[in-house]
């Protein structure tokens, strides 16, 4: 008998057995790529998990494993969770994509939610956040507040999500300040405080007085604070301990509403495989409190933009826009479609330098 | 591409800061190796120092106490190495690796409640006239105290090794431990002291990263710097001033590659990121012709067999 | 007064007992550690050692032991040959990465063609990739006398950057919407390192590991090169007199360990892992060093040690999930295991005696 079917029937038998015994508790598993104490990406996912616990109390049981490397280890952890009776599993990193699909095949009754991926299945949903909307707000504030007209950007990896963020920030900075220039440094890590501190210092030394980052630690904030007169934005978490200067605002990943909704769907039996890409409006992207270091008129402008993005009356990528090589991309009034955004691999006109590879 | 955006004065000042953890760890390991012991556990001792320093600093509010705690923490961890190699006569390479693994895990455990916390800041030197001088000011007179300590330590180690009796005995032990034993010197005791000194220095280097350079705590934050310190000792041919040079060179390459990136230089980022390691290899090759410095008894266990 | 007296010959009894005693000591002190962290020590130790082998879902975990242990054993065998001769290859992680890149690259070059010779070519490519990467420290050591520990280690960092470069550039999946990472080899049948018997966890890498164990055993005990290796490690001067050419030995040991590490990487990337991605390497090259020492540099010992390490990894993951034990505790646990083993090894070579202080 094929092992997979042996496994599946064993799992089903187990599921039925446990189901008959304790059907009231919904078990939700979380697979994290980093430590919950990272103060950024994983920390926010874990807050989402805690929100689920708070919302449903006794009706739900959550488990989590942190710092799971991508690859066969992730597959093992997911299988373990499924074997031990999880009904819903959140896999919170792009690199978990293929392992999630593999394990989902073996456990058709378990629902999977994969963050930032693009492969779906009958029991696999994908979800991500429109962080670029938050970047638009940051770009506006940056463009208005920079005095040196140099904005430093610490990129993690040259993947579409990061490129989107850079483009969105740049477009909106240029809109309010045609002289602004972006200097981009690639750290090749999502979280490495030492590297991020070095990158921030270098950018500041080269004249940047605004630092934007797509990496998750507070090291750039500390570097900016040491330098004085440099503003930064919190990434993934509010990083409010650095407010009101240098952190003037932030992008906050807020997974709680989505996690609660999906858990409820499993409990109600209404869960289906969907692809969710929510922004400020749905509450998935939070904009941190804009501090008093920001002049009142700039703050008002930023908040107006935020509201427009939230209620859908404005799209962060609205034409006329050209690509970096000069070719036309969006006509006046035209907005970018999700497909192009999902695979974005070009800079918009005005950004100097090349995307690595 | 805008190379003019790179400010050479700030560059030099930055590279001195980047070099300090390397220098501290390398000087400590240099002393250890001069005594004939190869301690590969530098990374483990550095990260243990990083968390000890961070934790005490946060708890007491004083970065100075943090640094002292870091030195003590590194020294205590090195005692494990002492136990393995001087008492149990285990293989030094394996013991050093075990120490690194253990140190990484232990520090991660200890640091669990300290992630994301801001440590108390250590003041920088701000001399009234000297710090404001155009070029010399930022480079020589505006750093934190530990950076100056690193340089002082280098000078101190150089002087002790070259001119003092203790240094002579240490070197003798490293060159030929049987002869030194025959002359009545307590080989094991001297090596234990050297190993603990190495541990303390590595601890200081680690704490520099977590308290000044970043400053934050994350598990694994030393990111291989301990291994580079080991390379530095060889690169320096076991001479303290060369270690200083090497630390600045390596710190310099790391800082320069980031500057080049920010200035928009067209070299692909991954190759820039590889450069510090490739340059280290190159320098190691060039300098390995100079084998004069390696202590002859390096890596061999000493046991006074009757 | 306690004196250490060198034994005329290493004690056989102790050399067999040491690993056992080390494991027991680790279980005890590890239990104390877990208790200090607020977890039930017996439950924790049981979860780590018992669950994967005999627990409720061991039908799944036992094959996983093979999956996790195979690369460790394969790399450790190669390393042990060098370690015995005092040739320290610390850069196995880099050779592992290169084997994966070259092997996967060759496989992807054939895509989408299905043919029986794709996989064997990948195997050869993987071994060559790892071999070539190890030749850098080997050549530098032979020609310039450069320390192989440091060069091989620096090459690890270079390899990691190359991995990132490949994942984002040359090997990037053209149908991957711009995301990093290569095509998944698990869906390319000719290149997939599939399980030989479904559900057993046994893929070609496991087979290779077992072959490597046998090969190393034969080499060390029956072949001249093996004799040279052992001689160089135990009595370097005698080796010189016996005419052992150090350069040849260095090239051989580093080359073999590089090739085996490259093979491990290639089997991993075409099997359990599936794609070349930025975070593909998880430290097997370094863990294998521990496995080599745990196995006391003996092929059969390494086989058992690899299994033991795999057990602590998998059991550790289970403990994380079901007991909330932090990942770092498992690392400390593994470090402790090595410590105890290295320290207890003393008893194999030395006898502890209470002796009177000698009077002049």
Structure in a nutshell:
Chain B is an all-alpha fold. Chain B has 12 helices and no strands.
Secondary structure: elements and pairs:
The complex is a heterotrimer of chains A (357), B (306) and C (360).
Chain A: H1 3-21, E1 26-31, H2 41-56, E2 60-65, H3 72-83, E3 88-91, H4 97-106, E4 111-115, E5 124-129, H5 131-145, E6 150-155, H6 160-176, E7 181-186, H7 193-205, E8 210-213, H8 219-227, E9 231-236, E10 247-253, H9 256-268, E11 275-278, E12 285-287, H10 296-310, E13 321-322, E14 328-330, H11 338-342
Parallel strand pairs in A: 1-2, 1-3, 3-4, 4-5, 5-11, 6-7, 6-8, 8-9, 9-10
Antiparallel strand pairs in A: 10-12, 13-14
Helix pairs in contact in A: 2-9, 3-4, 5-6, 5-10, 7-8
Chain B: H1 8-34, H2 42-60, H3 63-87, H4 92-110, H5 136-141, H6 145-163, H7 165-175, H8 177-182, H9 187-213, H10 225-235, H11 240-262, H12 269-287
Chain C: E1 2-6, H1 12-36, H2 41-49, H3 51-54, H4 58-84, H5 92-110, H6 118-144, H7 148-168, H8 204-222, H9 224-234, H10 236-241, H11 246-270, H12 284-294, H13 299-323, H14 327-344, H15 346-349, E2 350-354
Helix pairs in contact in C: 1-2, 1-14, 2-13, 4-8, 4-9, 4-11, 4-12, 4-13, 5-6, 5-7, 5-11, 5-12, 6-7, 6-11, 8-9, 8-11, 8-13, 12-13, 13-14
Main attributes?
heterotrimer; A: 357 residues; alpha/beta; Rossmann fold; 2 domains; 6-stranded parallel β-sheet; 11 helices; disordered N terminus; B: 306 residues; mainly alpha; ABC transporter involved in vitamin B12 uptake, BtuC; 69% helix; globular; ABC transporter permease (chain C); transmembrane transporter activity (chain C); transmembrane helix (chain C)
- Overall geometric form of chain C: globular
- State the end-to-end CA separation of chain B: 70 Å
The backbone outline of chain B, from C-alpha atoms, is globular
Secondary-structure element sequence of chain C? EHHHHHHHHHHHHHHHE
- Helix-and-strand structural type of chain B: mainly alpha
> How many domains of chain B?
1
Largest pleated sheet of chain C: 2 strands, antiparallel
Tell me the fraction of residues in β-strands of chain C, as a range.
Answer: under 5%
Number of helices of chain B: 12
- The count of strands of chain B amounts to 0
- From the 3D coordinates, which CATH architecture of chain B would you assign? Orthogonal Bundle
Membrane topology (chain C): Multi-pass membrane protein
Keywords (chain C): Cell membrane, Membrane, Transmembrane, Transmembrane helix
Organism (chain C): Ruegeria pomeroyi
Protein name (chain C): ABC transporter permease
